[in-house]
Structure formats: structure tokens, C-alpha cells
UniProtKB/TrEMBL annotation, chain B:
It holds the Pfam family DUF3708. SUPFAM superfamilies: MetI-like. This is Phosphate transport system permease protein. GO terms for molecular function: phosphate transmembrane transporter activity. The keyword ATP-binding does not apply. Keywords: Cell inner membrane, Cell membrane, Membrane, Phosphate transport, Transmembrane, Transmembrane helix, Transport. The keyword Cell membrane applies. One of its GO terms (cellular component) is plasma membrane. Its main location: membrane. Part of the binding-protein-dependent transport system for phosphate; probably responsible for the translocation of the substrate across the membrane. The gene is pstC. CDD domains: TM_PBP2 (cd06261). GO terms for biological process: phosphate ion transport. It is found in: Cell inner membrane; Cell membrane.
Length: 426, 462
């Protein structure tokens, strides 16, 4: 009797402690989830707060006089004259007319530094599009330099960053702002141009096109090969050592670091087969090998989920094994396979390291138009910009990341949607 | 004809032979009273013809594409006039490039030695010959394939099994791409590594304590003997991975336990995908985050308490890598925890254990092999992770175990050694392949071992 009450009191005493341990353990779990979610939130907040500014750029309003003598041309159809023309003079003169009391070489140079050094060429393009303007005056919004852009945006936010500005420049900006001649407008350059050394002129169009071409190449190769491999392994492969070996290989390739695929691409495709560097073809080949395991594994899961009764019914009606697979199993497994393909493509879109190995890291200004044009891709562009010293590139990089993440979010949500919408529950 | 034109004409020929043979089989069957007198459906006769017409020709085209340039270059170089014959590999490539550029009109023909001009003309004429012969060969092959197929086309020809045999082989070939990829990886890193170990002894590479891959371009250059001791890289890699695991394992494991055992359905449906978002973010984004946000934050934090934290510290790179790996560990652990049979939990709870005691003393030990396998897969990921360390870790190889200092890793060195234009046979670039070999071997062993554990564990409860 005594023994029993002893045990009971022992249990009674330990209960509070044990319950506290239970509560603590739950708290650890909650904290872990909270930290994970916090990381997601901080990451997104950080990128968006750094990058939202890049979608608008600073423009300065100037009265441009398209003076043929100033540019040094008389015929807009003459290409030689056009390329020799002094287009920078247009904006410089307009700026000097705006601030007539600026004197001295230093100050004059600082003054012209208010504008992007591509401003002249923008004006040239504008003039070529509207030839009737030659000899006339027009007030034009001209793109400002990246330092001015950084300063103006931070100044508007009330926390002016003037480390790269002179006192005079600050004063000019204030004057322009008072007269409403400087403003933020939508940054169309970001979406319409290729890479540039000048942050204000750099855009992601080239990288987006490069990513698109590379992904098309990857999809065209990896989807048919991956689906065929999955069909073979699920429906036709005999149970033997060779099949086991193929499976072990696929599972291992899924976990091989991506940079190793880059080494493979460099040694085999570029050095052995002499595929040119930096082109979407070789990028697509490398990414195909990399995404193939993902596509094979998800396609196999999709084929496996088709119930055997369907196969038996088809075979019972006299279909051959191939007819059974092609006419019945494949259409039913297709939504699952497409989901896998989209996930694989999302993985390929975000991949950087193997593409560095095969030379897609080059500085490329032109926008690629074909599979054999030199190109870079969006993640590599992000890497290149993140490495650039100019402060304005931080903003650009974050904006490019926002674009990349939105593509990825679209792809992944469409994969989830597709799975919910089309996949049948048996 | 160009390769793309040839491919297009093959497609057209294939379509033509499909419809032609299908029509012929129908024409054969009609007088006999319909297609039920044929052995196979008419489209199989069409497919048989199309396959015979295009497959061998495409195969030949592929082989030609691979070897065309190599063979022509070799022939041009052997016919080179004697005074131009190159002495070593580098000048061989130089001359070849020059000849190709002259032939393609990139270099002007003026002021070039006559030997080079002859070689360029030789190359041009060889190109023409090769183009014409391949065109002729491919058309002949396609036509004879078609002829063969139409010769076999009879009412009782078993077209379906014939087509299906070919398809089975095509499917098998697709499945074997995985094997060829593995072989390709092994051979590419192995051959270059063997070349590297010829100039740097393997013992010095694996056990050397100093890493400075700058080799001298001129003999008399100062301080650029180039030493390839990889120990600092291995230590750096382990350090960064250890920091990452230190963050990812507790957080990933605890969130998996909470989601699997405690969380209500509502929390589970939202928290799980939200955590998975971390797995979908590209590594270059993490790299940017580590280099521009986390590293400066840690440096300032350290400065405010009197610690010097390098702005390229292993802590920043490893910490962000840990965040990246959280969903990897949590989803793998979630799988194995939910696979533990409910009866084991019920037994423990019935004995009076609290839920956390059940988890710690019953569920986790039961799931341990799977969890260990998952952690090993995560380690292999951390070791092979590239972009975060390239952007946030340092370049200088330092032998230290202090996470506040800057270290470099194997992947960082591979990237720095191989980006940009380099001479392909210098020890500097070959070292990257030797590092790749190490990386591949270690991750492969980890993966095989981890997959083995996970598989064995799964079988236990199935």
C-alpha cells in the first residue's frame, strides 16, 4: 500500500516538470517555424525595399534645339553624317542655356555630368523617329546620370545620399526641382535594353531573352527525353541489374552539385565537341542534363499513379503494350508530367553556377535573337550586377531579382494550379 | 546544304514516307475488303517507313556534325606548308584559328603569308566537299531506307511489332542518357585531373597546407610559384557547411516535428508552403542577400560589441546557406516522421508519456536513420553550393576554424579558376578539375550512403 502511494506522489511531483518540458518543446517548434517564416519575410522585404526604386528613373526636362549646325549634319538619311554627328552637344548646350551663369571647366563638366552619357543617343533616336523636328525646339525629358538618380531618390525620401555629389550639383538639382524640371518617371529602359556599364542605361531585356531561349532549348530536349526514360523505366524495363544501375544513376545525378554539370559542359561540349561558348545551345544542353533527373522522377511518379485497372482494361481489349501506354497511360499521366516539367524549368531558370563555367558570364550588350547568339541569363546578370561597384547597381540588381522571383512564382503557382485542376484522384 | 536544312528536309521526307506508305497499305487492303486484312493498322506501315527513312540518316548527320570540323582541321594542318608547321599545342591552335578566320573572311586576305592563304583555300574547298558529300549520303540513305521499307510492305507484314521494337530501343536510349551523363562527368573530371596530377603530385594536392594558384607566366616573375595544397579549401568548405548545418538542422528538424505532430491543419496548410518558398529561391538571390545585407549587418553588430568580423565571414555565407537548407531538411524529416507507424505513438501515449516524451523517446529514435540520411544529403548540398559562397565568402585561402574570419571554399576556387579566358592546359585551370573531382567523389559517397540509409529505413516500415 505504502509503495503505491509513494509512486503516485512521485508521479504527482514530476508532473509539473514534465508538463513544463512539454510546453517548452512546443515552444521550440513554434520558434523554429517562426524563424523560418521570418527569414522568408526579411528576404522579401530586403529585396523589395532595395529594388522598388529601380522601376522609376530620374529625368530632367530640357529645351532641346535640334540645331543642324550644332550636331554637324544636314541630311538625316546620311548614315556617315549620323554616326559622326556631335549628339552630346544637344543636351550639353541645352543644359548650359538652362544654367547660363556656370563658368569654369570644372563646373561645366560637373554640369554636363547631370545627364546620362547616353542622353545624346536617345535624342538622336528621337530625332530620327521624328525628322520634322530638325531645326526646331522641343522640351524633352532627358535621362539623368545614375549618381544624380541615386541622390534625387534618396533626397525625396528625406535621407539624401550625397557622397558622389558636389555642392553645386546639389544646388542645381534643388533649383530644377523647384521649377518642376526634374522628376521620376517609369523606367522603361530597364525592360527594353541590354546590359550596360552605365547603371542608368542598363536593362534586363537581353538577359530575359537569353533565359527564355535557354529554357526553350532545355524544355525541348529534357521533356521528351525525360518522359521517354520514365515510360521505359515504369512500363517496359525488365527487373535486372542494368535497370537498377540506371535508377541508381538517376537518383545520384539528382543530388550532384550543379557546378559539376558546368565542368561537364566545359570539358565535353565546349572543349571536345567545340560548341561555341556563351550561347543558349550549350546552356540548354547543360541545364537539360541537370533537370533530367527531376523530370524523370516526377514523370515516373505520375505514371505510377495511374491505376493498373486502366492498363488491364486496355490490354483486355486487345491493345498492344505500346498502344496501352500511348493511348491510355500517357494522357492520364500528362498533367503530373507537365507539373514536373514546370518545376524542372523553374529550377533551370534560377540556376547560375554551371552557366558561369560555360562562359555565359560574358558582358553582352546586344539582345540575343537566336539559339546561337551570345547571351547571358537573368541569374547570371544578377550575379554580374551584384559584383559591380556602382551604388546604383544595387537597386538594379534587386529589381532584376524581383523580376526573376516573379517569373518563378508564376511558374510554381501554375504548377500547383495544374496539379489541382487536372490531376485526377483515383 | 547546312545541317539545319538537312534536318528540315529529313523531316519533310519522313512525313512524305509516312503518308505514302500508309496510302500504299490502304491501297493493298482495299481490293481484299478493307484494312482488317492487314496485319497492322495502316499508320504502323507509315511509321515503319518514316522511321527507316529518317532514323539512320539522322544518326549519320549527328556523327557528321561531331566529327566534320575535327577531321577537316586535321587534314588542313597536315597539308600545311613545311615552314608553318607548329611546334607545340598553343601555336597549333593559333595557326588553326588564323586559317579559319581567313577562310571565313573575318581576317583580311592581304598581308597574309601564302602558306596560310593556301591552307585557308584548302579548308574552304574541303568544307564544300564535305557539305556536298554529306548531303548526297544522307539523301541516299533516307531513300534506301524508304525503298527497303516499301519492299517489305505486304499485306501480312508485321509492321506493328517492328515499329514497337524500334521504339523500345529509343526509350532505352533515353533512359541511358543518365548513365552517359554520369560517365561524362567522371571522364571529364578524371582526365583533366590526371593531367593536373602529372604536374602537381597528388600527395601535395591533398595534404598541402598552402593554396595560391597564381602560376608564373614568365620564368623570372616574383612570388608566383603557384602552390596547390587544397587543405585550406577543404577546411573552409567544412567550416561554412558546419555553420550552415548548425542553423539548418535544429530549425529544420524542430519545424518538421512541430508541423508533423502538433500543428493544426490550418497552420500546416499555410506554414508548410511558406517554408517551401525558401527552397524555391535561386541561390544567386541568397548570395546577394548574404553579401549585401547579412554580412554588413554582422560586421556592424560585431563592431558594436568590439568583435572584428570580416565582411566576407564564413558566418554570413554559412548562415544564409543554413536558411536555404532549412526546407530541405524539414521536408525530408517530415516524410520520415509521418512514416513512423501511428501504433508506436499510441503505445507510448497509452503508457502515460506526454506528447513530447513520445516524440523524443519513440518517434525520433524510430525515424533516426531517415533523419540522418536527410542530414547527409543536406551536407552534400552545402558542400556543393556555389553561388552563395562565390558572392559572400572570400577568395584568399586561409587555414582557420574561426567562423568570423574570411575563408574560401572548393566551389569558389573552381569558379574563380575557370571564369574568364584561360589557357586550357595550364595547371591553374586543370586544378579546378581536380577540385571538381574531389567535390564529385565526396558528394557521390555522401549521396550513395544517404540514399542507402533512407531506402533501408523505408523498407523497414512498409
Amino acid at each position: 500500500m505504502n509503495n503505491r502511494s509513494d509512486t503516485l506522489s512521485k508521479i504527482q511531483h514530476s508532473l509539473t516538470r514534465r508538463n513544463r518540458a512539454e510546453a517548452r518543446f512546443r515552444w521550440y517548434g513554434r520558434c523554429a517555424i517562426f524563424i523560418g517564416l521570418l527569414a522568408v519575410a526579411v528576404l522579401f522585404f530586403d529585396i523589395i525595399s532595395k529594388g522598388h526604386g529601380a522601376f522609376r528613373a530620374t529625368y530632367i526636362n530640357l529645351d532641346i534645339h535640334y540645331d543642324p549646325e550644332l550636331i554637324g549634319i544636314n541630311n538625316l538619311a546620311d548614315n556617315e553624317q549620323l554616326s559622326a554627328g556631335n549628339w552630346q552637344a544637344l543636351s550639353k548646350t541645352a543644359l548650359r542655356n538652362k544654367f547660363p551663369d556656370v563658368s569654369g571647366r570644372q563646373d561645366k563638366r560637373r554640369l554636363s555630368k547631370l545627364l546620362s552619357n547616353g542622353a545624346g543617343f536617345d535624342l538622336k533616336d528621337h530625332l530620327l523617329a521624328n525628322p520634322q523636328l530638325l531645326g526646331k525646339k522641343e522640351s524633352v525629358w532627358v535621362l539623368a546620370d545614375d549618381d544624380i538618380d541615386t541622390y534625387f531618390k534618396s533626397w525625396l525620401d528625406g535621407d539624401a545620399y550625397d557622397a558622389r555629389m558636389t555642392a553645386k550639383q546639389v544646388q542645381w538639382i534643388a533649383q530644377l526641382h523647384q521649377e518642376d524640371l526634374i522628376t521620376l518617371k517609369f523606367n522603361s529602359n530597364l525592360f527594353s535594353r541590354g546590359d550596360s556599364r552605365e547603371p542608368e542605361q542598363a536593362g534586363i531585356r537581353g538577359a530575359v531573352m537569353g533565359s527564355f531561349l535557354t529554357l526553350i532549348m532545355t524544355l525541348m530536349l529534357s521533356f521528351p527525353i525525360g518522359v521517354s526514360a520514365a515510360i521505359y523505366l515504369e512500363e517496359f524495363a525488365p527487373k535486372n541489374r542494368w535497370t537498377d544501375f540506371i535508377e541508381v544513376n538517376i537518383n545520384n545525378l539528382a543530388a550532384v552539385p550543379s557546378i559539376i554539370f558546368g565542368l561537364l559542359g566545359l570539358a565535353i561540349f565546349i572543349n571536345f565537341f567545340h560548341v561555341p561558348r556563351s550561347v543558349p545551345i550549350v546552356g540548354g544542353l547543360v541545364l537539360t542534363l541537370m533537370t533530367l533527373p527531376t523530370i524523370i522522377i516526377t514523370s515516373r511518379a505520375a505514371i505510377k499513379s495511374v491505376p493498373p485497372s486502366i492498363r488491364e482494361a486496355a490490354l483486355g481489349m486487345g491493345a498492344s503494350k505500346y498502344q496501352m501506354v500511348l493511348h491510355h497511360v500517357l494522357p492520364l499521366a500528362l498533367p503530373g508530367m507537365l507539373t514536373g516539367a514546370i518545376i524542372g524549368m523553374a529550377q533551370a531558370l534560377g540556376e547560375t553556377a554551371p552557366l558561369l563555367m560555360i562562359g555565359m558570364v560574358a558582358f553582352i550588350v546586344d539582345i540575343p535573337n537566336g539559339f546561337s547568339d551570345p547571351a547571358t541569363v537573368l541569374p547570371v546578370q544578377i550575379f554580374l550586377w551584384a559584383d559591380s561597384p556602382e551604388r546604383a547597381f544595387i537597386e538594379k540588381t534587386s529589381a532584376a531579382i524581383m523580376v526573376l522571383l516573379s517569373f518563378l512564382i508564376i511558374m510554381n503557382t501554375s504548377a500547383v494550379w495544374l496539379r489541382k485542376r487536372l490531376e485526377r484522384r483515383w | 546544304m547546312q545541317a539545319t536544312d538537312l534536318l528540315l528536309s529529313l523531316i519533310v521526307l519522313g512525313l512524305f514516307s509516312f503518308y505514302w506508305s500508309r496510302g500504299r497499305s490502304l491501297a493493298l487492303a482495299n481490293p481484299l475488303g478493307g484494312i482488317r486484312n492487314l496485319h497492322s493498322l495502316p499508320s504502323y506501315y507509315g511509321l515503319h517507313a518514316a522511321l527507316w527513312c529518317t532514323l539512320p540518316a539522322t544518326f549519320l548527320l549527328g556523327i557528321w556534325l561531331i566529327f566534320d570540323e575535327i577531321v577537316i582541321n586535321g587534314m588542313v594542318m597536315t597539308d600545311l606548308s613545311p615552314e608553318l608547321i607548329p611546334s607545340d599545342n598553343a601555336s597549333y591552335n593559333l595557326i588553326l584559328n588564323k586559317v579559319a578566320n581567313i577562310a571565313n573572311g573575318i581576317l583580311p586576305r592581304e598581308d597574309q603569308p601564302s602558306g596560310l592563304l593556301d591552307a585557308a583555300d584548302n579548308m574552304l574547298s574541303l568544307n564544300v566537299v564535305s557539305q556536298w558529300s554529306i548531303t548526297l549520303l544522307i539523301i541516299t540513305l533516307a531513300m534506301s531506307g524508304l525503298a527497303w521499307s516499301s519492299h517489305k510492305l505486304k499485306v501480312d507484314f508485321r509492321a506493328r511489332p517492328a515499329v514497337e521494337r524500334v521504339m523500345q530501343n529509343l526509350l532505352l536510349a533515353c533512359a541511358c542518357v543518365a548513365i552517359f551523363t554520369t560517365l561524362g562527368i567522371v571522364f571529364s573530371v578524371l582526365f583533366e585531373s590526371i593531367q593536373f596530377f602529372r604536374s602537381v603530385p597528388i600527395y601535395d594536392f591533398i595534404f598541402g597546407l598552402e593554396w595560391s594558384p597564381q602560376t608564373a607566366i614568365r620564368e623570372d616573375q616574383v612570388g608566383s610559384s603557384g602552390s596547390f595544397g587544397a587543405i585550406p579549401l577543404f577546411v573552409g568548405t567544412l567550416l561554412v557547411s558546419a555553420v550552415a548545418m548548425f542553423i539548418a538542422v535544429p530549425i529544420g528538424l524542430m519545424s518538421a516535428i512541430y508541423l508533423a505532430e502538433y500543428a493544426s491543419d490550418g497552420v500546416r496548410t499555410y506554414a508548410k508552403p511558406a517554408l517551401e518558398v525558401l527552397a524555391g529561391i535561386p541561390t544567386v538571390v541568397y548570395g546577394f542577400f548574404a553579401a549585401l545585407t547579412v554580412a554588413p549587418f554582422l560586421r556592424d553588430l560585431g563592431a558594436s560589441v568590439g568583435l572584428t568580423i570580416s565582411s566576407e565571414s564564413a558566418l554570413a555565407a554559412g548562415g544564409v546557406m543554413g536558411i536555404m537548407i532549412i526546407p530541405f531538411i524539414s521536408s525530408l524529416a517530415d516524410d520520415v516522421i509521418t512514416a513512423v507507424p501511428q501504433s508506436m505513438r499510441d503505445g507510448s501515449l497509452a503508457m502515460g508519456a506526454t506528447q513530447s516524451e513520445t516524440i523524443r523517446k519513440v518517434v525520433i529514435p524510430a525515424a533516426l536513420p531517415g533523419i540522418v540520411g536527410g542530414i547527409m544529403l543536406a551536407i552534400s548540398r552545402a558542400i556543393g553550393e556555389t553561388m552563395i559562397v562565390v558572392m559572400a565568402a572570400g577568395l584568399a585561402a586561409k587555414l582557420t576554424a574561426n567562423p568570423l574570419e574570411s575563408v574560401t571554399t572548393v566551389t569558389v576556387q573552381i569558379v574563380t579558376l575557370l571564369t574568364g579566358d584561360q589557357e586550357f592546359d595550364s595547371p591553374k585551370t586543370l586544378a579546378a578539375f581536380a577540385l571538381g573531382l574531389m567535390l564529385f567523389t565526396v558528394t557521390l559517397l555522401l549521396n550513395i550512403f544517404a540514399l542507402h540509409i533512407v531506402k533501408k529505413y523505408r523498407e523497414q516500415y512498409e
